[in-house]
Description:
Blueprint: E1 2-11, E2 14-20, E3 25-29, H1 36-44, E4 74-82, E5 85-93, H2 95-99, E6 105-108, E7 111-112, H3 117-120, E8 125-128, H4 140-152, H5 157-182, H6 188-222, E9 230-235, H7 237-244, H8 247-260, H9 262-266, E10 279-284, E11 289-290, H10 296-318, E12 323-326, H11 335-348, E13 352-356, E14 369-375, E15 378-382, H12 384-388
Parallel strand pairs: 3-13, 3-14, 8-12, 12-13
Antiparallel strand pairs: 1-2, 1-4, 4-5, 5-6, 6-7, 9-10, 10-11, 14-15
Amino acid sequence: MAVQRLVLTDFRCYATLRLSIDAPMITLTGANGAGKTNLLEAISFLVPGRGLRAARLADIARRQTGSSDPGQCWGVAATVDGLDGVYEVGTGVSEEMAIEAPRRAVRINGAPARGQAALGERLSALWLTPDMQRLFTEGASGRRRFLDRLVFGFDPAHAGRLKAFERAMRERSSLLQREATQDTAADPAWLDVLEETIVEKGVAIAAARIALIDRLNPACAMGVGPFPSASLALDGVLDGWLNTMPAVEAEDQYRAALLESRNMDRSGRGTAVGPQRSDLAVTHILKNAPAGQCSTGEQKALLISIVLANARLQSLERGAVPILLLDEIAAHLDEERREALFAEIQALGAQAWMTGTDPALFTPLSGAAQHFTVANAEVTECSLDDHAA
Length: 389
């Protein structure tokens, strides 16, 4: 899978930008704050989800020069070589949408798509950012988002299930809290409908996560050169039920748990059972140690190993390698791991977009990568050999 042409309009620091891509590897170098990560974020919106920064749609539009008011409209368009052919893809927020609550529109070959799942049916992307180094030491929500991103590459409908689940959870919580604060009884029939949606989508979400981990673990156990082997597991009540009983019984247990937790949710404490409570446990196989107890360098190496394993699995199961978006990936890798990463990307045949402040880190890719320098939202193509000279 690959981006052949990228066009940005009022996206982050870019008023307009057009890039034509003709190489499997793309390197972007420049000072911090120049706009490198913004380019990776733009590409991350060509697949389902909230992008690599998980940003609010209202925060993405370029702030107009001389104005204190943030912009509202933005767009990303691309020609992509995806599953089953070449497509023209567009996404963003239009003026009409900005008047209401901002929502992201999607167009495929000029026609409106019904949802973001249409993107996942054609294209897949994986990314690593410096912020993700804290994945194993902070809360479980980041680890769930990371796992769900891995699932999207195999099951595009997963994004729609998550959205429907979260919407039903919010409505249920709002009904129960309004009942507690306004002394107005919630409609029990509507609560039943919402809880049925929560059960249906919640069990499907958990099952999709479990299914991916079962398939991904053998690839993760292989490791990649100097990158460590990893083992993944889900830790959660619902996940435990699905691992020990038929899905129908797990649904019954979940339905009963939601009914029992209504009083807890009236106080705003939240439901204790469901995919929103699961955690991804990652183990460094060679050291037999949880990732959270490993060094920062080992944690980064584990993340790289998992992402590369996922890319290999996508290549086998979907017949195409996902786009890799690797932000500041080379800066904190030693030479052995840096060269191993470059070699694995080339062996996979993946289109990889890599950023860094130091062009010298990418000189081994001279002749294999298309290189751009980025400065003050200006992107200029040049040769890595020029920097080496």
